[in-house]
Write a structure and sequence with these properties.
Layout lengths: L5 H11 L1 H5 L3 E5 L4 E6 L13 H23 L3 E12 L6 E6 L2 H14 L3 E10 L5 E13 L2
Antiparallel strand pairs: 1-2, 2-4, 3-6, 4-5, 5-6
Helix pairs in contact: 3-4
Length: 152
């Protein structure tokens, strides 16, 4: 059984990233190609403008990319380090209601993991996570650059 199940990842949040867990961030879907994370705008994660605080959106969006990277590294059965080296964000609309974040860059991650194994050289991966409200309108978009390399 894969350790990358929705239940296991939400338990991981509780114990390893409690600020995300208590903000309401939850993994809802994991495949080889994508990860979906949802978070509902509530009092505990709002800003003074009655919408979701940008940092909560950042936690949810980073989680979509990070779970995919962790999953592909684990499946390689190699010791590979991972680190976010850069992040950018754009905000388009107030985040209210339930926001769904999606990263579907699994193929790029798998290819980068394979390349770092084959060459022994570190790789950088540009991953996008976008957040949509219940009406399907994009509220934010995050770019993460992850660096991976074989541990020595």
């Amino acid at each position: 059984m894969s350790r990358f199940t929705v239940k296991n990842m939400n338990g991981f949040l509780l114990f390893k990233i409690p600020s995300a867990f208590f903000s309401g961030v939850r993994v809802t879907e994991i495949t080889d190609d994508k990860v979906v994370v949802k978070v509902k705008h509530k009092w505990r994660n709002q800003n003074p403008f009655n919408s979701m605080y940008w940092a909560v959106q950042g936690m949810a969006s980073e989680l979509t990319t990070g779970v995919l990277v962790m999953k592909h590294i684990a499946e390689s059965k190699r010791k590979i380090s991972m680190l976010v080296t850069h992040q950018e964000a754009d905000f388009f609309k107030k985040a209210t209601g339930k926001i769904t974040f999606l990263c579907n860059d699994g193929i790029e991650i798998k290819n980068a993991v394979q390349k770092t194994i084959e060459t022994g050289e570190g790789q950088t991966i540009k991953l996008i996570s976008e957040g949509f409200n219940e009406e399907g309108t994009k509220v934010s978009s995050f770019l993460y650059i992850w660096s991976i390399r074989i541990k020595k």
